[in-house]
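// run 5 | inverse folding | seed 20
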């Protein structure tokens, strides 16, 4: 009888709830041993539980020490170890893929060395902090929005302070921490926030239909800037003829070349740098109505060399697409009194090998005829 009672007490202790799901949008599945349990608000969690979220799901977990874990779509989260009592504390979680946010509770404050988050490519240690992460089999993006974290792989480690992030490629040391644009941080945060709007598909999140007054003013300002820029680009050609033959006559060549740089732009990793790697070269064949070119630039994480090619219309406007593995393209126009400019914009997407991560690459360029 004593042995049966002891076993019952041990079993009850082992199966005790360590936290629960406090919010969920969409569907998720809890894997517990051989059981598969649909997740709903109020679902209680146990050590070694595993949660897999659906394609349009966001959920939030509150643990007993007030640690908060939020998960986004297509995420795979496991509770490797969790202990919070008068004798000992331990919190070790794993994120195999997907989007997550972690706000450390009492464990992260009283024993930060006992709080760890393991991703597909790194291990994160905390110093009383908030972490946002995007995890893929071959790459992680890990940001710190409060406090400080240490991101470690077998190849090295890096300290990431508040407002910074690192990118960790598979089997490589974490990239040096870089300051992050607040817009990008908000984008990462929304991907695991159950209170934020859920996109209808896997594309970038759309703005809500209802806009604030400040947003309307911002949009109006942007529209005015675009109209002013377009007027400036077209001003030099308003009184000129609008055929490729006339452009060729004015420029004095059938194959003019233009060189310049990306003047402004962003990628998913940060702002496009204005440095020596930034150059744009475009070559036109006015007889065939075609163009070829090369765009080179870098952001805080990597360098890009995008080959482009496209067609030129009779009015000197042109469209192009990537010729070397990127999705997307851009457009522009040959303009100016003597057609000395070939300026425009671009929008490319870079996908990882598994199609899990898309790097958005957008910007504007300005070139001068050589």
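// decoded
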């Amino acid at each position: 009888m004593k042995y049966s009672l002891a076993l019952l007490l041990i079993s009850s202790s082992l199966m005790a709830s360590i936290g629960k799901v406090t919010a969920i949008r969409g569907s998720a599945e809890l894997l517990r041993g051989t059981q598969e349990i649909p997740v709903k608000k109020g679902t209680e969690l146990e050590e070694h539980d595993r949660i897999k979220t659906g394609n349009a799901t966001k959920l939030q977990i509150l643990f007993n020490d007030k640690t908060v874990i939020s998960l986004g779509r297509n995420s795979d989260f496991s509770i490797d170890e969790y202990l919070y009592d008068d004798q000992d504390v331990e919190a070790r979680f794993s994120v195999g893929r997907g989007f997550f946010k972690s706000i450390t509770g009492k464990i992260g404050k009283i024993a930060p060395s006992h709080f760890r988050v393991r991703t597909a490519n790194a291990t994160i240690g905390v110093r009383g902090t908030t972490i946002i992460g995007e995890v893929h089999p071959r790459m992680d993006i890990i940001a710190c929005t409060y406090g400080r974290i240490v991101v470690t792989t077998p190849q090295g480690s890096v300290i990431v302070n508040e407002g910074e992030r690192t990118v960790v490629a598979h089997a490589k040391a974490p990239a040096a921490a870089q300051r992050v644009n607040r817009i990008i941080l908000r984008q990462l945060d929304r991907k695991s926030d159950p209170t934020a709007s859920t996109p209808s598909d896997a594309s970038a999140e759309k703005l809500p239909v209802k806009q604030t007054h400040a947003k309307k003013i911002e949009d109006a300002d942007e529209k005015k800037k675009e109209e002013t820029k377009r007027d400036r680009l077209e001003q030099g050609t308003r009184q000129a003829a609008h055929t490729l033959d006339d452009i060729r006559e004015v420029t004095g060549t059938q194959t003019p070349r233009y060189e310049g740089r990306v003047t402004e732009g962003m990628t998913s990793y940060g702002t496009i740098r204005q440095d020596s790697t930034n150059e744009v070269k475009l070559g036109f064949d006015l007889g065939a109505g075609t163009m070829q070119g090369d765009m080179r630039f870098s952001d805080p994480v990597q360098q890009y060399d995008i080959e482009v090619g496209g067609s030129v219309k009779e009015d000197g406007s042109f469209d192009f697409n990537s010729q070397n593995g990127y999705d997307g393209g851009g457009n522009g126009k040959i303009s100016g009194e003597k057609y000395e400019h070939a300026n425009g914009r671009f929008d490319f997407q870079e996908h990882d090998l598994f199609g899990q991560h898309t790097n958005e690459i957008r910007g504007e360029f300005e070139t001068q005829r050589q």
